[in-house]
Records
---
Amino acid sequence: MGAFRVSVTLIHPEHRDRTAHLELLLDTGAPYTLLPAEVVARLELRATDDWQAQLASGDRVVYPLGEVRLRLGNTERTTLFVAGPAGCPALLGALALEAFGMAADPVHQRLFPVVGHL
């Protein structure tokens, strides 16, 4: 699948004056949104849990997991984020995409609305 970037605004869930505008790389294979440590620190986001993962290299890692509010277009949703290491790519994961009721069109590099399933 072709990769493309999506413009979003990150918003602290409790202190809505703390925002950041970012271009997130869409990664429908990743469940959670991945944010670099410096973005998490700048917004003072709080991680409440640890998330264990296995990287493509086979290495196992533990990263902090928390909540962030995302604005995509005129819509806002709260989603989970993983606080990655400093300098890591910022990724928009599948759970956030589903929360917005959107799917990826990699050919035209855009998001489009879809009907949710229960």
---
Amino acid sequence: MPVIRALVIVMLASTLAFADGTTRVLLADEDPELQRAVKATLAPWRLEVVTSAARPADANQAQLIGDAKTARFVVWREHGELVVLDRERGEAEHREAKAGPLDPASAAAAALTVKTLMRLPPPDQVAEAPAQPNEPRDQITRPTGPADDGLELRVQGGVATRVARGQQNEFGGRASLAVFVKPASIALRLGIAGELGTETDVQGAGFKGSWRDWSVIGLASWAFSVAPRWEIEPYVGAGVLRSMLDGEEGMMQRQERETLVTLRAGTFVRARLGRFSVGALLGFDATPGTPTYTRMGMGSQFFEVPPFALSFGLVVAADLGR
């Protein structure tokens, strides 16, 4: 019976909290300037902002506090970051923020960041959107058009070891530079990556030289938060690979150039540190229709451009904001 009584109390509290359709935001920060700035910034959306001096230790504790307070969003600062937890989406987003007491300008900037991370629609759409009979009371109607907060830009560099499978296994290094853009309203990122590989020695059937390649690949990725600060980001892509073979064959110079289509799939695993992130990458490349080179006039094969490759390495990225 005590358990049933507790459940009834929680249900009644939730019903009363949202009886007027108001969405609640819990600001778990005792800073008075931040409290004033957040309330002023969110006022056009008619949100109920409640404050608490007890800051959650992590996203899991914030989820529990939000449940207890019947708050759709929980906002707090930790380790030099501003964190906004959306209980409905089950996601916590982090942005760099000042620690300690805030002056009015810093508090206003932090409040704007809170508004951006909450993915709020224009205020007039909140006021005009009718409540649906089966729609949760704490749900905010989202715009159907493009988000008004622009694009987030990410610049990422990486180094990796590549194991390429062709006529024989080839081991080499890769350096990459990528640029991604992300609409503010979704976790999808679209980008382009340029990569340069190290040279591989090629020797056989009277040929002695080296092979190298570079590639330009378009990528699409989707990030999933798995823990505070940690995310997994699977990606797929397609692009072009430029293959270059140079060497000597029978006292004569030989050069071979090919432009090939290459396909890629893999994942990033990264830890977010404010606007920066560090992590690991794992990728698989497939290049159909790779050429095989033979000695002229003899047909003796000495090299095949690898049709498959596996890469693993490290990445560092910076989110430059909107």
---
Amino acid sequence: MTGPPPAPALAPPAAGRPAPRVLPAASGQRAELARLRRADRPVYCGGDRRRLVALTFDDGPGPYTRLALKELRAAHAHATFFLVGRSIRAFPRRPLEEKHVGALGDHTATHPFLPALTARAMRRQLAEGQHAAQHAAGIAVRLFRPPYGSFTPAVTAAARHLGMVEVLWSVDSGDSLSGDFHVLAARMRRAIRPGAIVLMHENRGQTIRALRSILPWLRRHRLRPVSVPELLAADPPSRAQLRAGEAGCPAITSGPARRSSRSRR
């Protein structure tokens, strides 16, 4: 497959405000998520004022979760894991480990295409996925990502009703399409900018290999990998960014189309 179109060169490490040494406390993160939840719009990225990046992993936990956690811990990096209820049943102890490396999110109970479901079935998918993650990790889950990035206003409203912010992404690693970790790493290097939310999947070996390349690259460019709540609290998207949706983000890669009445793809 061909890679994404070239992106403008990444600003040199000295550009922009540095990543904060001390990130906002948990109370500040909760407050920002509450504000974004009231905005009733999906979040695609943070701002671009601080050198922060949010790495996210979908579809876990799974057999590669242990390796992803090992790489993140070695790099002192935080991340966010969007978990599927049925996967939690297969790997019930992993969410306890993942919560110590960042944040957890709901990725539904069984990973269906939500717009095809009845309203009742859709709401149940969100509620059961959230409950499974909360029960396994013993923490409140305030983030939600729809499978395939496919959502409708009703999905966004259901997430808000359950106390969650709907989080999409601005950079797609493409690891669900390609098994070549060199291609994945090159795609992310071209696209990542301060404020980016990066989509990956923790159940693929090529993702782990790409992660081993990306984490040192982020450090060289003084980009700090943080959780989604940390990014949004330290460098929140502006109102204009929220209104613009995906188009309001610092960088966008090509990737699978998201089917939504609000999506621009």
---
Amino acid sequence: MKKYIRKCGKITDILPLAWIITFALIILGQIIGEVFMQMANGKPPWLDIALQYFSFISIWAVGLSTLLFKDNKPMLKALKPNKYKIGNNWRGILFGAAVGFGMNAFCAVISMLFKDIGVSFSCFEPLKLIVILFCVMVQSGAEELLCRWYLLEKLARRYKGPWVPIIGNAMLFALLHFANPGINFWAVTQIIVIGVLLSLLVMYYNSFYAAVFVHTLWNFTQNIIFGLPNSGKVTPYSIFHLDAGSSGFFFDPSFGIEGTPGSCLVIILVVVLLILNIRKRKLRPIDLWKDAEKEAEQAEQAKAAEKTAETA
């Protein structure tokens, strides 16, 4: 078992404890965010939904405050701009936006073609949509910050290899949605799979930005463009309005596109393509903890040498 544990790992990085701490940070952020939720009362529908999404800014504040702890300083590297082909740069943003929009729009269009959903045009107000898009990015980015940054890096500091951090954060990401209305087996499966997809972007492409914009455009496309349920919740403002919906391979009336076998297959296909590209390019997981691990090993060796000298 020791060969899978890194010497630089902290006791709070153990999987169950890391889950509890991350969940507590999310709850704390949501409590603070209730201020924005109160501001939404009585506002026009577009501003109501914008403020609901923007309330997640408090989770950003809570998440970033963890950098005040000295041991977490290396995590900052995962947020800084870089020059990777698809990294924390404009290419990563565009790639993430294209993947998020493409996956969700594909599922929505197929549902329309099979007449599982019917939509009608509601309104198109560019300035309001830009404000909402930014607010959706705040909400989606907050979830990414806690799951694909804070939790993922805590697990990476504790466990060798990429799969405990990847699966560990994806599982908590799914658990966070258990209270959503209409949750079902396919919804849980899809959330875990998309958690894996987003983790691959962060770990192998060093692109937290891409993960944020996959998540952002997935939510924005489903909720604000097509007016479909997003994790079981329907927005009061969207470009198109859902007139009718029935169960289908790509649509669930309660949970939306996310609660279907079709969306799972689409995301699995993207995951497979990413893994094939990772293998083709021989990409290695980005490791922020190399220096910390070396320091821990050197400290352990120095301690062992000291003990040996004392007993000699």
